[in-house]
Amino acid sequence: MRLLAIDATVEVPPTLIAETLDRDGVVLIRQGSLTKLTELLDPWVAPADHPHQVTTGLTIITPRSSWAGRPNEVGFTQSPLAPHTDRSLDERPPSLVAGLMLSPARAGGVTILADGARVLSDMLRSDGIAAVTRLRLRLADGRPGHRWSRSAMD
User: What are phi and psi of 44, to 5 degrees?
Assistant: First the structure.
């Protein structure tokens, strides 16, 4: 298993994962397997439950042919997803999300990662606190979710 910095060229030793995550927010994994990823993460993280998990800390995303409109299940189809933050509406969201692609998508499958703290910081700087406080997460059924609060940034 190869661990790479965000530019995908610099190898990251396992002893520097925490430092790299702190600096870049992401570590890329190449030639990984579920067993090797589990061995890497087990000593320093506890698995978080997910409503669609097959076992504690493991959710297998296999595209379904249709979507019944149930909350949070469009990610299990071949339909595009709107920008989102995994598990952000949980009272205690996981501090680390790991993804492992076991087989490549036939088409699409592009993931774009954004540094939410930087986005908020840039918005504060350019548009002020009023713009940021108008941000509101929505639950899958359209109901309002948690509002962002200034204390979350401190």
Answer: -130, 5
The string of pLDDT tens digits covering residues 28-84 is 988 888 889 888 888 888 888 877 888 888 888 777 776 666 666 777 777 777 766
DSSP state of 16: G
Q: Convert the pLDDT of each residue in 128-140 to its tens digit.
A: 888 877 776 555 5
Task: Please tell me the pTM assigned to this model.
Answer: 0.63
Residue 139 half-sphere exposure toward CB, CA atoms < 13 A: 8
Q: Are 22 and 90 in contact (CB under 8 A)?
A: no
Q: DSSP letters of 38-97? A: HHHHTTT--PPP-TT-SBTTB-----BS-----TT-GGGBSS---S--TTTTSSS--S--
8 Å CB contact between 81 and 73: no
DSSP SS3 for 146? strand
Dig out the tokens for 153 from the structure: 């940034």
d(CA 34, CA 111): 20
Residue 139 CA to residue 147 CA, distance in Å, equals: 12
